[in-house]
Protein backbone atom coordinates (compact mmCIF):
# COMPACT_ATOMS: atom_id res chain seq x y z
CA UNK A 1 0.00 0.00 0.00
CA UNK A 2 1.35 3.40 -0.99
CA UNK A 3 2.04 5.87 1.83
CA UNK A 4 1.12 9.34 0.62
CA UNK A 5 3.11 11.02 3.40
CA UNK A 6 6.31 9.33 2.27
CA UNK A 7 5.70 10.16 -1.40
CA UNK A 8 5.34 13.86 -0.59
CA UNK A 9 1.72 14.03 -1.74
CA UNK A 10 0.50 14.93 1.74
CA UNK A 11 2.72 17.68 3.09
CA UNK A 12 1.03 18.25 6.45
CA UNK A 13 -2.07 18.19 8.59
CA UNK A 14 -3.92 21.10 10.17
CA UNK A 15 -6.63 21.58 12.75
CA UNK A 16 -9.52 23.93 12.07
CA UNK A 17 -10.40 26.10 15.04
CA UNK A 18 -13.80 27.78 15.43
CA UNK A 19 -12.83 31.48 15.82
CA UNK A 20 -16.04 32.27 17.71
CA UNK A 21 -15.20 29.61 20.31
CA UNK A 22 -11.96 31.38 21.20
CA UNK A 23 -13.44 34.89 21.20
CA UNK A 24 -12.05 36.03 17.86
CA UNK A 25 -15.05 35.45 15.61
CA UNK A 26 -15.36 38.82 13.85
CA UNK A 27 -13.65 38.88 10.45
CA UNK A 28 -13.10 41.76 8.07
CA UNK A 29 -11.75 41.52 4.54
CA UNK A 30 -9.64 44.49 3.53
CA UNK A 31 -8.21 45.74 0.26
CA UNK A 32 -5.15 47.97 0.40
CA UNK A 33 -3.20 49.85 -2.25
CA UNK A 34 0.28 51.21 -1.62
CA UNK A 35 1.55 54.71 -2.36
CA UNK A 36 4.71 53.34 -3.99
CA UNK A 37 5.62 49.93 -5.37
CA UNK A 38 9.37 50.05 -4.78
CA UNK A 39 10.97 47.06 -3.06
CA UNK A 40 11.83 48.73 0.28
CA UNK A 41 8.25 50.06 0.66
CA UNK A 42 6.71 46.70 -0.25
CA UNK A 43 8.99 44.66 2.01
CA UNK A 44 8.55 46.99 4.99
CA UNK A 45 4.76 47.08 4.60
CA UNK A 46 4.52 43.29 4.31
CA UNK A 47 6.72 42.70 7.35
CA UNK A 48 4.77 45.22 9.43
CA UNK A 49 1.32 43.87 8.53
CA UNK A 50 2.28 40.17 8.65
CA UNK A 51 3.54 40.66 12.22
CA UNK A 52 0.17 41.95 13.44
CA UNK A 53 -1.70 39.26 15.41
CA UNK A 54 -5.05 40.48 14.06
CA UNK A 55 -3.97 39.71 10.48
CA UNK A 56 -4.68 36.05 9.71
CA UNK A 57 -4.13 36.23 5.95
CA UNK A 58 -2.08 38.60 3.82
CA UNK A 59 -1.88 38.26 0.04
CA UNK A 60 0.01 40.39 -2.46
CA UNK A 61 -2.22 40.48 -5.54
CA UNK A 62 -1.75 40.98 -9.26
CA UNK A 63 -3.76 43.99 -10.37
CA UNK A 64 -6.09 45.89 -8.07
CA UNK A 65 -5.96 45.87 -5.07
CA UNK A 66 -2.29 45.53 -4.20
CA UNK A 67 -3.14 43.53 -1.07
CA UNK A 68 -5.92 41.38 0.29
CA UNK A 69 -5.88 41.31 4.10
CA UNK A 70 -8.10 39.13 6.28
CA UNK A 71 -8.41 40.41 9.83
CA UNK A 72 -9.86 38.49 12.77
CA UNK A 73 -10.77 40.33 15.98
CA UNK A 74 -13.23 40.05 18.88
CA UNK A 75 -15.82 42.52 17.60
CA UNK A 76 -16.32 45.66 15.53
CA UNK A 77 -15.07 47.89 18.36
CA UNK A 78 -11.81 45.92 18.46
CA UNK A 79 -11.55 46.28 14.67
CA UNK A 80 -12.13 50.05 14.84
CA UNK A 81 -9.40 50.45 17.49
CA UNK A 82 -6.95 48.31 15.47
CA UNK A 83 -7.78 50.10 12.22
CA UNK A 84 -7.36 53.61 13.59
CA UNK A 85 -4.27 52.91 15.69
CA UNK A 86 -2.31 50.43 13.57
CA UNK A 87 -3.36 50.82 9.93
CA UNK A 88 -4.69 54.31 9.19
CA UNK A 89 -1.41 55.96 10.11
CA UNK A 90 0.67 53.73 7.85
CA UNK A 91 2.34 56.07 5.36
CA UNK A 92 2.73 53.27 2.81
CA UNK A 93 -1.04 52.94 2.29
CA UNK A 94 -2.59 55.11 -0.42
CA UNK A 95 -6.09 53.65 -0.20
CA UNK A 96 -7.89 50.94 1.70
CA UNK A 97 -11.41 49.69 2.20
CA UNK A 98 -13.07 47.13 4.42
CA UNK A 99 -15.63 44.47 3.58
CA UNK A 100 -17.90 42.89 6.17
CA UNK A 101 -19.47 39.52 5.48
CA UNK A 102 -23.26 39.39 5.48
CA UNK A 103 -23.43 35.59 5.45
CA UNK A 104 -20.80 32.87 5.17
CA UNK A 105 -22.00 30.37 2.58
CA UNK A 106 -19.05 28.04 2.06
CA UNK A 107 -15.54 27.54 3.39
Mind explaining what this structure looks like?
This protein is α+β, with helices and mostly antiparallel strands and 107 residues long. The protein has a single domain (20-100), classed as Lrp/AsnC effector binding domain/regulation of amino acid metabolism (RAM) domain (Alpha-Beta Plaits, 2-Layer Sandwich), CATH 3.30.70. The protein has helices spanning 4-7, 39-50, 76-87; strands at 26-34, 55-60, 67-73, 93-100. The chain has a four-stranded antiparallel β-sheet. The longest helix is centred in the middle third of the chain and has 12 residues, at 39-50. 11% of the residues are buried. The mean pLDDT is 87.
Question: Which key phrases capture this entry?
Answer:
single chain; 107 residues; alpha+beta; Alpha-Beta Plaits; 4-stranded antiparallel β-sheet; 3 helices; globular
In short:
The chain is α+β, with helices and mostly antiparallel strands and 107 residues long. The protein has helices spanning 4-7, 39-50, 76-87; strands at 26-34, 55-60, 67-73, 93-100. 26% of the residues lie in helices and 28% in strands.
